[in-house]
Amino acid sequence: MNPRYARAVQVWAQRWHEGNPAWVHERFGFNPDDYGVDLVDWQTAVDFITTHHYSRSVPALRRYRFGLFDLTAEQPVLVGVAALSVPPRNEVLSGPFPRLVPNHESAELGRLILFDAVPHGAESWFYGEVRDWLAKNTTIRGLVMFSDPEMRTRNDGTILLPGHVGTSYQASNALYLGYGTSRWLTLVDGLVFSDRARSKILSYDQGWKYAAQILVDAGNGTVEPLDPAHDDPAEWVAKALRKTGAKRRKHGGCHKYAMPVGCNARARGRVTIAGTPLPYPKLDLRQLGLF
Fold first, then answer.
1. Among 69, 228, 240, 282, which residue's beta carbon has the most beta carbons within 10 A?
2. Number of domains the chain is built from
3. pTM flag (> 0.85)
4. Is the domain of 204 the same as that of 103?
């Protein structure tokens, strides 16, 4: 690799603020003494994720949700969230961890978000604190993480997701297991409108209002809110997707990482991870807009 490229990969990290991506240049002044990690309640995690993550969406969260707090102010300030989630299929967990019980001894790290003001290097420290807590207080012994490498743009051409390769997972020595499952996506102004969200609306299941609001917001005034008393949900969804200019796109799969959880190296070594670890994928620096 070109040394200039190699150096740039090491000193840039991707962060989010109010749904917008930002590349943060190295600030190696991170001091763990200035920060603390603690459990946060469901609503706090949801509010933080939907405000700051590019997807504006929350996966099916487990009860373990962690906040990163800046302790330098008079009162602790929430500057990051890491949340475990339940994947749509057990195979997502049993594939990498065939000897662990899905969602009991293994879990997915569904969201990891830090403000761009937090110094470079905080991700791996935060991640390490979460793993240590899980090892001491839960039955979870394996974590699966994904990073989406494909760029997505909004309808107006601005970048919603530059794409990322999981640099923080690499810094935490997670094992890279290649690409996850390829699939077709429905994109609404760059955001994924999942089959699960569609199903919630069609059945008026818990969370249907939030799913419907995604389409209303993307319509910029062209999509009327869903009225259960008068609207057929299937017809409403179909019309809303047309008005938002929704697109179907084949996705090649996200980068997949796996990390054993244990109180020490011996305990982590007892966790079986299926598959052969592969070399880490490299960041395409064109995504930084620097080259």
1. 240
2. 2
3. no
4. no
Distance CA 66, CA 36 (A): 10
Both 69 and 86 in a single domain?
Answer: yes
- Please check whether residue 259 is in contact with residue 169, taking contact to mean a CB–CB distance below 8 angstroms: yes
Give the tens place of pLDDT for each residue, 9-56: 445 555 555 545 555 555 557 899 999 999 999 999 988 988 877 766
Give yes or no: residues 164 and 133 share one domain. yes
Q: Which range marks the domain in which residue 108 is found?
A: 3-181+254-288
Does a structural domain hold residue 7? yes
Neighbours of 152 (CB within 10 A): 20
CB atoms within 10 A of CB 244: 23
Q: Which residue has the tokens 């008026």?
A: 204
* Rounded Cα–Cα distance for residues 291 and 289 (Å): 6
Report residue 281 as tokens.
Answer: 């994928």
